[in-house]
Amino acid sequence: MGSKVPLVPIDQEVIRKAPLFTALDDAASASLLASMVSVKIPKGTILFAEGDGGDQLYVIAEGKLKLGTSSGDGRENLLSILGPGEMFGELSLFDPGPRTSTATAVTDSKLLSLGQEKLLPWLVDNPKVSLQLLARLAPVSYTHLTLPTTPYV
Fold first, then answer.
1. What are 37-68's pLDDT values in tens digits?
2. 17 to each of 10, 21, 102, 116, how far by Cα in Å?
3. Rg over CA atoms, the chain
4. 3-state secondary structure at position 117
């Protein structure tokens, strides 16, 4: 994995662009930023692999990452290319299962990482963000559900 480095002022602006945190005021944004760790990863580095455990969400501060899965014949299925201000990995904060994709740096990248142990207490102090997080996770979780084949009676 990449190296941890001190945060710099631009990171707060990047955080405010992440969809989950767009409604944060200055105080909440600064509080969240204080809980995050900056991680630098060089081009081609795998941040995490499909099947790995994880409890971190990431916001891209600089660079680009790709998310992909492996097909049965070993080929990569590209899910998305993400850039500055975009967030990924949030489902792993609440779902103890394995990662559903592999995240790889397409360019030299700098990420902001937030772990479950820091996020949960922060959400208690910021309930407005808790509701935004639930709204963001609901569509993702819904796609993992299997619907019954027989109607409920």
1. 889 999 999 999 999 988 898 999 999 999 99
2. 11, 7, 23, 21
3. 16
4. helix
